[in-house]
Fold:
Amino acid sequence: MRIASSRRFIKKSRKGLSLAEVMISLAISAMLLTAVAAAFTASSEAIEQNDQFFRASQAARVSMNQILTEAPAPTWRWSATMATPATMSTTLPSRS
Structure:
């Protein structure tokens, strides 16, 4: 009979969390929220950089398309003798 009364006592005293458990759970929650905030900030910056790159690429694409459609065809041509831009040469048509 004494065992039954001690079990009832244990059940009554364990209705909530202790202060240490609450503090530990709050610390863990704070660390997780900080990690989520850091990940959100990093992804926001990556999205912003990607958007800037896309806008610059699109502007360059539109500009090149406009230049190629409105500019007259060149009378000279480039001929690459090697794969590096430093060694490129131009071949001009003869003036005869």
